[in-house]
Amino acid sequence: MNQHELIAEVFERQAKRRVERRAFLKFAGMSTAVAGAAAVSACGGGGGDGDGFGVDNNVNVAPPQTGLSDADILNFALNLEYLEAQFYSFAVTGAGLPNTLLTGTGTQGAVTGGRAVAFTDQVVRQYANEIAADERAHVAFLRTALGSAAVAQPAINISSDANGPFSAAARAAGLVGAGQSFDPYASDENFLLGAYIFEDVGVTAYKGASPLIQSPTFLSAAAGILGAEAYHAGLIRTVLYGKGIAMPALIDATEAISDARDSLDNTADVDQGVRRMGDASNIVPADANGLAFSRSAGDVLNIVYLNAGAVNQGGFFPAGVNGTIRASTAG
């Protein structure tokens, strides 16, 4: 049995297809979610289709005063960029970022795990190389923009062992059983699923944070990174859907991961896999108006900490993130 067949068998056995739970939400339901999201605080539960940091999608509504500076918001983003950049760097080169890109305020941590993927699909290899370069550039850019205020890389766990965060996330999604491991470096398909966890979350995080940024220069920078992350997420979703035509269990896995993220971030049910009703593609997870949804900082930390409670560390950040925004919110 080759690697593709093995992964398909595992996913078909472990990831039970959800019965069309990801059908488009009705507009009335979306409106309710927007109304609820507009009332949350900067680090509270985002949910629904508000911007997730406490502002709804009405462009005429000014962002509330949150007590967060532009540097606080960009440093929160920098923590996420460290995580993504390290994952992709190890996947394509077998090594992490240089130490010159890791220093700063707060406690600098090491990376646990990570190794090169033996790509068999040359298209996936080239895409991975391009995204890795972009993520490294994001880290360098944010560090330059923040100057001496830039936070150091916190401790990051991207290991593939049974006790690591990828395996914990896969168990939460029902992809592997108790005591089993999920290795995002084992194959092209596993790598894509690992990337799928990060990219969708990154897009919603930048979408939620952007309305709070006061400096036009920093806002332009955040918008530029949001655009790049959206391209990455769309690409990963496209490749997963394309491969899933011949390997349906791969599409089922995106649904299962989506359900797991929904169980962690907040009480709203807006996360979406790569399939709509029937077998239609769902490359852009959006609301009834075709708009990308948002997550608050707390929601994002719920996912990367792999904990639906209000905590300060865990999952991919075993000692927490650096900076002012550190705590997740009860989902």
From TrEMBL:
Coiled coil: none annotated. Pfam families: Ferritin_2 (PF13668). Signal peptide: none annotated. InterPro entries: Pigment-catalase-like (IPR052965), TAT_signal (IPR006311). This is Dessication-associated protein. It comes from uncultured Sphingomonas sp.
